[in-house]
Structures are given as structure tokens and as C-alpha cells.
Amino acid sequence: MRVFQIEGNWGFENLKLSERPKPEPGPGEVLIAMRMASLNSRDLIVPDRGYGRATGELPLIPVSDGVGEVVAIGDGVTRVAVGDRVTPTYFQRWVSGEPSPDRFASALGGPLDGVMADFVCLSQEGVVRIPEYLSDAEAATLPCAGLTAWSAIVTHGVTRPGDRVLIQGTGGVALFAFVFAKQAGAHVTVISSSDEKLERVRAMGADATINYREVEDWARASREITADRGGFDNIVELGGAETLPLSLRAVRPGGTLSMIGVLSGLNIKASLGLIVARQVRLQGVTVGHRDGYEAMLAGMSQHEIRPVLGERFGFEELKEALDHLRAGGHFGKTLVQF
Ligand SMILES: NC(=O)c1ccc[n+]([C@@H]2O[C@H](COP(=O)([O-])OP(=O)(O)OC[C@H]3O[C@@H](n4cnc5c(N)ncnc54)[C@H](OP(=O)(O)O)[C@@H]3O)[C@@H](O)[C@H]2O)c1
To answer: CATH fold of 2-143+288-337, please?
Structure first.
């Protein structure tokens, strides 16, 4: 079968189209014929071993998110049947409960082999049936980007109608967070580097928008939006080093910073007084568990919520698809069709 794998050495240049034997499902395992994959920012980091030892070993099949059809099952499989359409869960061994080192060490697409293969063999515990109303392309976007946003807005953020939520950028996680926050009845502010993208989110129902390249101090510029409560109830923090100092000023006393991304860097110098004296909650979000994923699917099905889709590439165009993501012009999830 065809696979993409990082082989020989780490580095984007060593991401190669290659062959591996088709796997056979053992007891408790399911064999999935993959149909579609979807890319995340981490897929740009994995080829360069950007997560250190946690990235895994070579050869490594990249990419965590995708959808396919169950074509064979091993002895004792009861969760799914042949013919079911499933996605993997991002963390293969985090079904519910608290995170643990072992659960965090079970991410697809590094350290475990990911979905860029014609066939993927996984434990039945690591796959979930997908609602019929979702297309293959829509389903492929859910395991990492969808669940991370759900965790930030619903599981940890517990967004209520009327909450003021701020979303950073219009990337994959951001647009899911936008859709879920709107669905929860929140007033949603989106910041982006692009007026064109801001126009698109306004057309999707954004309540306020700010261009963070033109208005660098968006914490000050958003004061009017949150004047009745002294800041945002929940900020979906994706920018990291550049944005966190502003987020600390823009969150309300007792509000939440949903700490997800570090797009502009990992290290900051900030006044801890802004956190301590204003009782701000810093909530790290690391995707989520299978229970959360199933809750998200139920929540999405209720109102037939659809992910926002972007460009499509063919299986053999994975590197072009990653270049497209890296360039940052995308709006909606970048897809790879098998
Ligand atoms: N913790 C977790 O579980 C988890 C899960 C998934 C992703 N992540 C992390 O979350 C981040 C986003 O991932 P993604 O896959 O959604 O990425 P993505 O689709 O590539 O999103 C990139 C977008 O983020 C926006 N952005 C970049 N720099 C920014 C800045 N300084 N301030 C505000 N917005 C900025 C830009 O939006 P505009 O073009 O609109 O300006 C850019 O297009 C990454 O750091 C990723 O590693 C974490």
C-alpha cells in the first residue's frame, strides 16, 4: 500500500511517498481504508522532530486527522462493523478521565504512525463512527482541530449565552471555535491579519472583528465590546508569545484563557499580577479524550453543524498541501483526498 513517511532522517525533505505491506487486523483491531485526511499546524512541525522525543521514531507516517471505511475487523471487535465510516481519535489511548503521560504519548501522526496510508490498522478503542450528515471531507477535519476547539469552548470553557468570546486568527482550530461559540449563544470577536478573512467571518455571523496587524493593541481596541464586564469571558489563545500579553489584559477578572497554540513563539515575559490579582484561569487545552469527541459529534449532529473547508489536494500532493498550509493564506481546513 502507499504511505507517506518521514524516513532516513528527520526533515521535511525526508517526507517521502513510499510503500509498506498492507496491515492485518489482530484481536480487537480494525482495518480502515482511508478516504480523506485533513492537515493541522502540527503536521508542519512533526517532520522536523519539532516535539523532540515526543515526536516518535523513524520511519513515521504523519498526519492525525482523517476518515475512512472499516474494511476488516479482528476477533472481539464490537464497537464498529465492516462498512462503518469512522475517524480515528487523536489520542488513541485517552478514552475518558484525566490526562496521563501514557495517554498523551498516544497521538496519531507522531509519536504513533498517522493516517497518510491507504490502510490504517487501529485498536477499536481508537475509532469513532461518524454521523451520516457529514461528508467525508467534513468528517476528516474533526479529530484534532474540531475536538480542541470543542474542549476550549464547551468542555473547559463552559460557554454560556451572552458570553463575550475572543478568537485569534481564522485557522483550523479558530474557525471551529468560532462555530461552536456562536452555537453556544456567545458574542464572538475574531481577530485576523486579513481584512478579506474578517469579511468572511462577518458573513458567517462574527459579532465584532479586528485586524491585528492594523490595530496592534487589540486589547485596548476591544474594551468597548466588553465594557459591561471588564474583558472577555474566554479567549481562545492560539498566538502564544505575541498574543498572550495582550490576552492577559483583555480577559475579564475571573475569565478564562484557553491556552491552545503557540503560533508566534513559546516564551513570554508577563506580569503575573494580571493573573493572580484578577483571578484569571489559564486553562491548557490538549485536544481532548474520546468521550469529549463523542459529545462533540452529538452536539454537532443536533444542529447539523458543518466544519469550514478549504483547499483540496491529492494523496500524492501532500507536500504541496503542507506548503499551502505553511503559507497561511488558507481559510478553512486543508484536505488531502485519497
Ligand atoms: N493544544 C492543542 O491541543 C492544539 C491542537 C491543535 C492545534 N494547536 C495549536 O494551535 C495553533 C493553531 O493551529 P491550527 O492548526 O488551527 O493552525 P492554522 O490553521 O495553520 O492557523 C494559522 C492561523 O492562525 C492565525 N495566526 C497566526 N499567527 C497569529 C498571531 N500572532 N496572532 C493571531 N493569530 C495568528 C492566522 O490567522 P489569520 O490568517 O486570520 O491572521 C493563521 O492563518 C498552532 O500553534 C497549533 O500547534 C494546539
So the answer is: Quinone Oxidoreductase; Chain A, domain 1 (3.90.180)
